[in-house]
Design a protein that fits this description.
three-stranded antiparallel sheet; seven-stranded mixed sheet; alpha/beta; homodimer; globular
């Protein structure tokens, strides 16, 4: 019975991993606080243990505060941010539904793909990468169809643009549609007000401004959205992400669904505690100040930010690559010579920008300074 | 802009989580080795960092050894075991496909649900809970349809039965069907031989006999399975789990797909190292010996194991609850008085069995003894 046909030679077993000491200034993950890393390393309890159930309740309560919502159905999906996007789409969309999606970067484009895989007829509302989606564009699209859902990306991680939400939400509601918001990069770094903005479905990620490792996707659904999911004609196409099943596990019944990622929930609990201890207002101000300091330093080097003036994200800065400079080479040198990670541009912005993240724990004046010094050294400016 | 409407009162912020020191003898998660917890707490690098790419490669290589396969497409899906089940189904099944699923417990039943959500016409092959699926049953089912896929659960976590695989795989292949195997509870605890058994698609979980926290699902697809996924008529209904997209991220191209759960991959890397350092043969023997020690101790108390004789899992023991004993009360006392977690029975076995896991790090003679002493104390036997 024990025929092990491919015993790995002892000398072939890889060495234990030793990560280099990176400063994470890319599009995420961001730096993680020592207390959160310590929480990750706590011994495990079972996923139905009374102490874990209490932890789940505390996470839900803290997430509600961070999302600024009273939605009961607020919890972390057991997957990364893209799983949260898929969670919202599979539960709310049925084949043949008309869905309006704002596309001004990678993540709007991804939502189109996900919604189409749910059988939606997608009406794309496009803006150039780096610009915001204008309410007038959504209003025009609404005139062409009967949307069940209007979806936009709050903070486009691929371009550094922050689209204002309130007016678009109002348009969606007036059209009788649900409103879906991607807050992967905004949550914890700038104002996200789910109830004030009347958002029906929202997803985020843990590895951006919450400064928790990637692996969970905080989501929240309004009562309107839950009703749509409950009254579907067709079963949700994903068992793993079916909110009607997840509700019994994260709700009062505690019915076994899947095994929650225990350690990741430990980490999220601690990361949310740190957010609330700092206070959302203080945290947003810190992000704003770091952005302004970065912008000032870039300006002194003759560099600018590519995204739309007046709508630039604090936490993700699309720094324009100067004429004649090899974007990839600078990025590689930042990593190899200075242990600083920044992101590359994507799509039409490839080679044209560096994406400099100032998210959560990374958003510290000392880190901004460290980055500016390194960039100045490499660019000789 | 900074109207924080629901500032959480500082006194309402939950305290840092302090888990009680549990011995995890339930159906998973199992105890996690200190070295794996330590790996979880290492500082993060980016998910496209060259050092993380190297870590991914090492994980793939080690997983191949543990699965006993040369399949290139062997990697951890960024979700728990049920996400792995869904990964296999969404990629291989198209609407209208006929799929045979063996159902002898919770997880076979779950596979039926997942396959139906992919549009499959499912032919169920059922056995009483605790019994195995017989090859003759599969052979009979094959005569009634033209299956694209035959799926069974190797080690049923809900009943403690181990279904032999080789003959069923042969039947599937002869019928021109792909063969899908759930190894969530078997992998790392007893022989799993993907290439010898000619398994086309397999998924597992990290939190059982690999003794890594829950959060990832190791999977492997054969070339035959990959071809089926590549040549689909319809797009895979899940963007998050689409192997055609994941192949570019986990393959040589390193195209950004989603942000991999960095810390969980650190943990899996270390957990796999520990498995290989121990050696698969030694590890299986340790699981067998613990099972035999448990069985002997139970026998001395007049207790038995409910699953089919000759096919009882080493790593998950369905201990029969004696007449007149309150199953739930004993389980609660094991937890509250002895810090030992065991699992409850599910479905038809609810109230009739305790599920005693001896998985990975938990499978130690001292733990078996600790459990027997605690049970003896509570039952006064």
């Amino acid at each position: 019975m024990l025929q092990i046909t491919q015993i790995m030679n002892a000398s072939a077993i890889p060495a234990a991993f030793q990560p280099p000491p990176r400063l994470l200034m890319g599009p995420g993950p961001s730096d993680v606080a020592p207390a959160v890393l310590k929480a990750l390393a706590l011994p495990l309890v079972g996923h139905l243990d009374p102490t874990f159930v209490k932890l789940m309740e505390e996470i839900k309560t803290m997430l509600r505060t961070v999302f600024q919502t009273e939605n009961g159905m607020t919890f972390p999906v057991s997957g990364t941010g893209s799983a949260g996007m898929e969670f919202c789409c599979v539960n709310l969309i049925e084949p043949g539904d008309e869905v309006i999606v704002g596309v001004n970067g990678v993540f709007g484009g991804r939502m189109v793909d996900v919604a189409e895989r749910c059988g939606a007829r997608v009406i794309k509302v496009e803006a150039p990468w780096g610009k915001i989606i204008e309410p007038s564009q959504i209003a025009a699209a609404i005139k062409t169809c009967k949307p069940k859902l209007v979806a936009i990306v709050h903070a486009e991680t691929s371009t550094g643009a922050l689209t204002p939400v309130a007016e678009i939400s109002k348009l969606a509601r007036e059209a009788g549609a649900l409103f879906l918001l991607d807050t992967v990069t905004s949550l914890g770094g700038c104002a996200v007000e789910i109830d004030t903005w009347q958002v029906d479905a929202v997803y985020s990620g843990t590895q951006k401004c919450l400064s928790c490792p990637p692996g969970l996707s905080p989501v929240s659904l309004s009562e309107r959205a839950l009703k749509v999911a409950r009254e579907r004609k067709k079963k949700v196409q994903s068992w793993y992400l079916d909110v009607n099943l997840l509700a019994s596990y994260w709700g009062q019944e505690r019915v076994y669904h899947h095994t929650a990622p225990i350690s990741m929930n430990y980490a999220l609990h601690e990361a949310l505690r740190l957010v609330l201890i700092e206070g959302l207002g203080n945290r947003f101000k810190r992000h704003e100040q770091c952005h302004l300091a970065l912008k000032k330093g870039l300006d002194e080097m003759g560099l600018g930010i590519a995204s739309q003036e007046g709508h630039q994200l604090w936490q993700l800065n699309a720094v324009t690559v100067p004429e004649g400079v090899d974007e990839a080479d600078v990025r590689k040198r930042l990593l190899s010579e200075h242990n600083i990670e920044v992101g590359a541009g994507l799509g039409p912005l490839k080679g044209k920008i560096w994406r400099v993240g100032l998210m959560g724990e990374t958003a510290r004046p000392a880190n901004v300074e460290k980055f500016l010094v390194a960039l100045r050294t490499i660019l000789k400016r």
